[in-house]
Amino acid sequence: MTGIVADLREVRGGLVSRVHRIRTMIARATAVPLLVRGTIFVAGVLATLVVYPLPVVLRSGGLVLLALALLPAIAPRSRLVTLFLGVTVVGWLATTTGYGEPVTLLRLFALAGSLYAVHSTAALAAYLPYDAIVSPGVLLRWFARAGLVIGATAVLTVYALVVAELLRGRATAIATVVGLGVAVGVAALLASQLRRPDR
């Protein structure tokens, strides 16, 4: 009986210390890390709203989907980011193939952009302490770089769609050859980096 009591006291002590740690984190948190985590949440909510129809999100089960968008913001260094991204992609496949939701260029781009924003901003939040003092210029450069990637993706996507429309039946063969060339190039680059001596 004393063993169980000792175990319960240990569990209680662990919970109390975690609550104190969370209170300390909230008290010491600065604006920039909170802004970064807020950006993760907003991008996650946008991805959820793009994937699922609004009537589904407004139901009680849909609120769970919105709560999932909070997970990467709370724990950006954990596998919860991957869990959210995976659930969102599976939801996209289910709604577009199983329920006949239309796949439009705007929806596809909004989904890709918001998922990239969740992923890249979670990477920043994972290495940014909650009480860090960060110059706004650092944050602006980070988001400018992410915006540049999203913008370049949009331009290339539209370009690829136009080229595919012009080539029609030949597009698959050309895409296969180009994809194979890119894969070989990336493999060669990675192999050369592995052989390179450390400096």
Name its key features.
mainly alpha, globular
Taking the sheet with the most strands, its summary is:
none
Helix content: over 70%
Overall shape: it is: globular
Q: Number of helical runs?
A: 9
Global mean pLDDT: 79
Distance N to C terminus? 60 Å
Radius of gyration: 22 Å
Show unreliable segments. Answer: none
- Strand elements, count: 0
- How much of the residues is beta strand, in percent? under 5%
- SSE run: HHHHHHHHH
The computed structural class is mainly alpha
Explain how this protein is built.
This protein is an all-alpha fold and 199 residues long. Helix content is 82%, strand content 0%. It has nine helices and no strands. Helix 2 (31-51) packs parallel to helix 6 and helix 7 (105-126) packs antiparallel against helix 8 (136-167). The longest helix is centred in the last third of the chain and has 32 residues, at 136-167. The mean pLDDT is 79.
